[in-house]
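dumping the sequnces here before i forget
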Amino acid sequence: MINVSPKCIGCNKCVPVCPFAAIQLIDKKAVINEACTLCGACVQVCPVQAIEISREETATRDLGGYKGVWVFVELVEDRAVGGAAKEGGQPAHAKQGRKIRPVTFELLSIGRKLADQLGEELCAVLLTDKNYGYEKDLGAYGADKVYLVENPELYEYNTDIFSTAIVALTHKHKPSIMLYGATIMGRDLAPRVASSLYTGLTADCTALAIKDGQLLQSRPAFGGNIMADILSPRSRPQMSTVRPNVMKLSDPIYGKIAVTVREDIKIDKGLRRVKVLERKLEKADAGVKLDEARVIVSGGRGMKTKERFKHLEELCRLLGGVVGASRGAVDMGLKDKTHQVGQSGTTVSPKLYLSFGISGAVQHIVGMKASDVIVAVNNDPDAPIFNVAKYGIVGDAHEIAPKLIEALKKRKP
Amino acid sequence: MHIAVCVKQVPDSTEVKINPETGTLIRAGVPSIINPYDHFALQAAMELKAAHGFRVTVVSMGPPQARSVVQMGLALGADDGVLLSDMAFAGSDTWSTSYALAKAMKKIGKVDIILAGMQAIDGDTAQTGPGIAQQLGIPQVSFCVKVDVDGRKLIVRRLIDGGHEIVETRAPALLTMIMPKDYVSKYPSFPAVHSSLKKPCHTWSAADIGAEAQYLGLKGSPTQVAKIYPPPQREKAAMSGGSSQEAVEKILEILARENFVE
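..and the predicted 3d for all of it:
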């Protein structure tokens, strides 16, 4: 139920922000009609808290009416996508506009499995100023349907605008599950949406499964020291965020095109309460993202000098990876902070993590232990990094790195 | 202007140890600290206070012993402190925690800027800040490293993938904070700690903030923990040593075996 209390001052702020034109001003009071989806956009902008959505209905809501698995499609500027993250690749038609961030395809891959188990649809939710045939790629990775909101106001991410649109779509179509990438965008958007819907949200899931019709979400806690299985038994949609590179990418089936369903959602400019004044990407290699890298070659204090650390960059080029660094190496000035892996840096989960001269402080370990294959080179046989590594090499990192470069070059004609 | 800073008491995760027999967490003897991101948020608030003379209130939710992080905020220079402490809050997930903190903000009254750590190191969810903003109907800016205030206008530098952006918003707003690379954490001096003991520190219950029991604690939380278990143990690393040349050959063999080179 939505109610406008006598506190309403007739300021008219709520009328333009309603995505469904469900509010009129009658006798200087806001009156809400049956087009209302309880999305709460008006509640957000009311300066006197006169509009209230009572949550009574959420306690008794019919969960059976919620069907389908949704994946939020994250679009990024082309240059912000790391070269190493290019798995699957995208055909030329996506080139003109923004690109679909690879984590979206990973979410579709796991989402497909969940949808099949439930016998329900897999839908991608795409908010953009212009659609560049994105449905082809989304379909190839398993989406049955794409809910497309095309509006000039969606030219870049904005918390209020995106969350309002998604909440509105959720009220209309009632999905059972909704997945987001645990990226800077996803981690900003998902909690806002979940809060508005009074529904459960589980961050950084490392596994998702269906158990007795419910979404079972597994995630690490306490810096990866324990695992927790989380359920959202009483509310829908069940929402999760998943870090890039955690879910296995399925093989795309090109030609399987998702059905596009256009959704007309009105977006008021007044919802843009946060405006971007300036955006800066740092240096050429800053576009390369550690958290999406497939291969990371990482160095620690054991690399000793900046010159020797450069060997790791060469190794990265040969292996198609991204350079990482321990906090120790960053503190010594061997590499700048944007490359730092660990609790106070970036959490990574590449297929290969090749470390040189990193002993493995807890802060570092929690940031990289989710990597598929960890190969560690260190001169101390008791270094803690060997506790999480699959392969340990005891030796001098700064000597081994250049020799490995030579050897790799010889192999490549 | 009035700034409220949300802080959380967390176990120091660098000190967390695992029982090797059972694979479970040893909680006993693990020191409690202020969440480092919240510590930075407090310092950011103090800088604004020093520059503009703003009032700062530090707010936490937790068991009675969480009072120590509120005290820490007061010692760093906050004007007053609030601890939400009530058995009714126990077991609250991020939704219910946001609900309670939003209710507390309403009781505090006119709050212009809310600062919170980007996430807490025990849960790493980064959900409570945006939840508070949504419940209050105010804009949020997450992953902020620097805040400048000009009248009601907030100019904020925030992290994005591979760089940063400068955004503008207006108070009231909620900002979640993350340490910039040149950050150094400051601790209060002994005299500051001593004099902070005289500052007001209120303890509020669910009833005090008008929070409804049905949205609090285990019962009111949309998420439920079904099971806690030790992470799957990794097998011990396959170790090898020898000369640098032998090491290189070993690495090449591993890279080939794992299909990273042909």
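The longest strand of chain B covers residues 140-150.
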